[in-house]
Amino acid sequence: MPNRPVLDFWYEFASPYSCLSALRIEKLAEEAGVTLRWRPFLLGPIFAAQGWNTSPFALYPSKGRYMWRDTARRGRRQGVAIVKPENFPQNSLTAARLALAGRDGGWTPAFSKALFQAHFCEGRNMAEEAVLSAALKEAGSDPNVAIPLSRSEEVKGRLRAEIEYAKSIGIFGAPFFVAGDGELFWGDDRLEEALEWATEGR
Amino acid sequence: MPNRPVLDFWYEFASPYSCLSALRIEKLAEEAGVTLRWRPFLLGPIFAAQGWNTSPFALYPSKGRYMWRDTARRGRRQGVAIVKPENFPQNSLTAARLALAGRDGGWTPAFSKALFQAHFCEGRNMAEEAVLSAALKEAGSDPNVAIPLSRSEEVKGRLRAEIEYAKSIGIFGAPFFVAGDGELFWGDDRLEEALEWATEGR
């Protein structure tokens, strides 16, 4: 059997466009015959290196207003109702560590989808342990195991390494899709193009 | 005859994504039965209000590198070879004034397309009078009339008013498409959605 093409899906839990991708990427990848690698990371350190202390959607009001309008329109097209959480952006550190902790157990995708839905469709606070625990349970993971694991030095180091790697290959936002040959695609609206590239090249 | 829907096309001559839109928008608008209003403006004053002294593609190197790759890919799909001009971004003040000067004579679209092509497909310097004159001639306009007109107080004021208006409705980048009901769409990749909205609403 020939090797299946691979696509890396880099996402940030505080990113509404990452949410839109997370909720639709699996079906599209399956149809395209592409294997996905879910790669949660944090934009905070990357933004900080650019001199931003928060999301550009918070720094630049017109950009923020437009983003909520645009994600609502795009969400509607895919049957997802995006709501603006009360605080935005929220701290996504624990969420990202948990998602990385799920890599070996295979529950990263299910946890990520459940958390995105709680955060951007139900407006829940993703830094709250109750919200994280509910998403873990929905993904078939035991919070009493997963939460301590997410606090281990190993998982913390894994996240730092992922962020460094993301920065080193030129990632500056989310979501990003990276094809097997290193080709970069930024934004939920490039998902189809990225899958096409992954399977056929240019 | 019922009124045709109208779409405002806000563009900046130093914006590669504006170039991609300018070179494909007329055919799509015609097919959709939408009347276009070409509205050249400057992003410089809008960026300055956000604390940026140049294009974000120049301020943030990864973003800039990605943009040239992305516009090359998108250009290829529409049969346009995008090249990075030697200096980027270039001063687009005279270009924008000229484009506004062409509103009454009706040559704004033809001039804009010719100049975008010279700048982003042939790498010419759009601040040079020879390049501007060639684009004017291609659009059937006499440079000896158009250039002095572009320096008139009336045209200068027209451009300032356009920039103020753009800012007031929440425009923060280019291209932007604005439907008759005020709905905003940002980026060449939203052109189809904007035309659909203009004709059907949401």
UniProtKB/TrEMBL annotation, chains A, B:
GO terms for molecular function: isomerase activity. Residues 7-193 form the DSBA-like thioredoxin domain. InterPro entries: DSBA-like_thioredoxin_dom, GST_Kappa/NadH, HCCAis_GSTk, NahD-like, Thioredoxin-like_sf. This is 2-hydroxychromene-2-carboxylate isomerase. Keywords: Isomerase. Belongs to the GST superfamily. NadH family. Its EC number is 5.99.1.4. It is an enzyme of class 5 (isomerase). It catalyses: 2-hydroxychromene-2-carboxylate = (3E)-4-(2-hydroxyphenyl)-2-oxobut-3-enoate. It comes from the Bacteria.
